[in-house]
Design a protein that fits this description.
The chain has 15 helices and 15 strands. The chain is α/β, with parallel strands linked by helices and about 400 residues long. The protein folds into two domains: about 120 residues, Rhodanese-like domain (Oxidized Rhodanese, domain 1), CATH 3.40.250.10; about 210 residues, Rossmann fold (3-Layer(aba) Sandwich). Strands 10-9-8-11-12-13-14-15 form an eight-stranded mixed beta sheet, sandwiched between helices. The longest helix is centred in the C-terminal third of the chain and has 18 residues. Bound molecules: zinc ion. The site of zinc ion (ZN) has 8 residues, from helix 14. Keywords: Nucleotidyltransferase, Transferase.
Length: about 400
């Protein structure tokens, strides 16, 4: 059978087609995912505005990260509407029920005056700096662009926030923000690797900014020398794609959870105690069974049971490991590959080298992550300032 006959056969039997105008309408109504499956060289002169761009060869490997469920409408676009027929057939065989090939491809899209954009590409310096990322198919140029276009907020420039910020700056997170109102103390240097002896007594966020800019001058470092409060949290958190909770007090931890749930932002959480570290991602808007931090711990422990931060001990390298795990999770969320720690709590114990992953159930009574348009979102709560260590 010639390729032409084969395409015709697929169109007659398994593959559904859609014209560019209907495809655009469906995409504009937020009912579908539009994937441009052309090669990098073809995409660089233009691609439908807002489309996900994954070349045909990588589509089957990456589709799970893009399409949330098998019933979701998927619109595939190539140059002229032939390759998209073949890919639509492959996805149908993988169980995707509503895949459409766009008739006439990008040529028709452009000729019909539908919106397109010229995607930003990496420059020479980026190609060099991020070369080892570009060589991994799961990241590649597409993933690196996502990292460069992303905005991440790290709460706390301490034991966990330090390695998080170091690695996210190195990875090329385009806008990296750090919030902390503290100054560097000599007792911090045992684990807070963003700071050095000469920064003792100076602001933690400025010390962090200095080091991160020296590491990667091509990204934008934003600093907030303040505490997150009920008053400023909406204003600060709302603009970020991912928030990393590396805080050391319960008041801020619950505030981060409540604000992230409200703004539908993934909250990557890391915590340490003596020899044990915990990591999880709370992102209830991602899917209906995904819990929030309050599903796991509905409220902070009473103040008399929590030590003050100055009294609690911790093995210095432990927050380093937890921070690296958190940074890994943030990169996976943004670049869109691999499994995430949604609904899972990763617990690490440095004494016996054990890594365990526990399931975290969604609390169906949790009034934070179960709130919807018909119920008022709960007010932010101010707790006594107790230490999470
Ligand atoms: Zn919840």
């Amino acid at each position: 059978m010639s390729i032409k006959d084969h395409l015709q056969y697929l169109k007659d039997t398994t593959v559904k087609e859609v014209d560019v105008r209907s495809a655009h309408q469906q995409f504009a109504d937020n009912q579908s995912v539009l994937i441009d499956i052309r090669e990098k060289d073809e995409v660089k002169s233009g691609s439908p505005t807002g489309a996900v761009r994954i070349s045909k060869g990588l589509l089957e490997m990456q589709i799970e990260n893009i399409v949330l469920h098998k019933q979701q409408v998927v619109l595939l676009l190539c140059a002229s509407g032939n390759r998209s027929v073949l890919s639509a057939n492959s996805l149908a065989q993988m169980g995707y029920e509503n895949v459409f090939s766009i008739k006439g491809g990008y040529k028709n899209w452009k000729d019909s005056g539908l919106p397109f954009e010229v995607p930003k590409m990496l420059n020479e310096s980026d190609n060099e700096r991020y070369k080892r990322h570009l060589l991994i198919p799961e990241i590649g140029e597409e993933g690196q662009m996502k990292l460069l276009n992303s905005k991440v907020l790290v709460v706390g420039a301490g034991g966990i926030g330090s390695p998080v910020a170091w690695y996210l700056a190195a990875a090329g997170i385009g806008t990296l923000a750090i919030i902390d109102d503290d100054v560097v103390d000599k007792t911090n240097l045992q684990r807070q690797i963003l700071h050095t002896n000469d920064s003792v007594g100076t602001s933690k966020v400025l010390s962090a900014k200095k080091r991160l800019e020296a590491l990667n001058p091509d990204i934008n470092i934003i600093t907030y020398k303040e505490r997150l409060t009920k008053e400023n949290v909406d204003h600060i958190i709302g603009v970020y794609d991912v928030v990393l909770d590396g805080t050391d007090n319960f008041n801020t931890r619950y505030l981060i959870n409540d604000a992230c749930v409200k703004h539908k932002i993934p909250n990557v959480h890391g915590s340490v105690f003596q020899f044990e570290g915990q990591v999880s991602t709370f992102w209830p808007s991602k899917h209906e069974n995904a819990p929030c931090y309050r599903c796991l711990y509905p409220s902070p422990p009473p103040a008399e049971l929590a030590p003050s931060c100055a009294e609690a001990g911790v093995l210095g390298v432990l927050p380093g490991l937890v921070g690296v795990l958190c940074a890994t999770e943030a990169i996976k969320i943004i670049a869109g590959f691999g499994e995430l720690l949604i609904g899972k709590l990763l617990v690490y114990n440095a004494l016996d080298w054990e890594f365990d992953t526990f399931e975290v159930q969604k609390d169906t009574q949790c009034k934070y992550c179960n709130s919807n348009k018909n119920t008022e979102y709960p007010e932010y709560v101010e707790y006594e300032d107790t230490c999470t260590l």
